[in-house]
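U., I forgot to send this yesterday:
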Amino acid sequence: MDCSAALVFRERANIDLLIEVPLEGRRTDGKSLVVAVELKIDAKEAPRQLEKYREYVMEHYPKDEWHHAFVFLTLRGDEPSAPNLPFWIPLALSDVLPRFDEVAEGWGRSDKAVGLYQDYAAMMRRHLLDDDEFARIAGLIWSKHGPTLDKLNEFRPDMQADILEWIIDKLPDVFDEVEEEIQLKLFQDTSSKRIIRIAVNQWLDLPGFTSGGDKWVKSQSVLLVELADWKEGRLRLAYVMGYGADDVRQRIYDGAIAQKELKIARRSSGNLPLHKHLSARDVQKTSAYLSALEADTSIEELGKKALHELKTFLIKTLPIYNMIVMAACQDGTDDQSD
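Result:
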């Protein structure tokens, strides 16, 4: 077909891609062609989603004027739900990308569109798609050299761990800057290789605040700030409630919910989980980490960016949480006096 006059619509009637190939591009029976494409990567097919899309196409593209094609595009060609099997064609991205590669290479162009596609295709292959030939070769290597590879893996470079180590070395300077800005003194509490925990000194003497025992952290704080490695290059900073008296935990939670600027959604029902995350922010996103790997960015540069985000977030939110914690612990003493 000649698709030079085709029109491609994104999210028309919520359909991911809707492609119209007009009559003049087709050497067939006098009908144009419309193709609906639904793309699923991590999400699952929603109830009646494909049925509604098909109904829309049937209504707006009459069968006497249009041929209809419905494509269910997933990583590995997963089939749609049973009611949609007769109508939707399962198609795998692993089959689509090689054909797109041929078109991009045969086109003989190197403009922005081609570059964007090639970057996208490389990302998909690297992170989402199986490479059968690579898997075959890897299997052979592991079968012959498994013990050696296991030993090598013990000494595998870990850039994320190096970033966290760099951040730990610089934390005292950040704590000083935060204290100068908002007059709250911070210190590093019990931490691990993948989680850095930060406590507030002024909260330790508040009634009921250090009611968690030493099951979690040395300071016994109910509420801490955690900088955690969430894998794939993501570093997440969050206020986390751990072990502690239920009434203090509940008052802190209720106080945080009441502060609209914190944008914390209230739990619908049930008791608070043992480790309840409140406000959170990514100080390093996966995309930035992967870009840094490709660009050979230094650990120091990544660490500086993460620390800047950490400091900014703490200066903005700690005064609010200070007010919440003070009120929550004061309420406890008021209850006792009553």
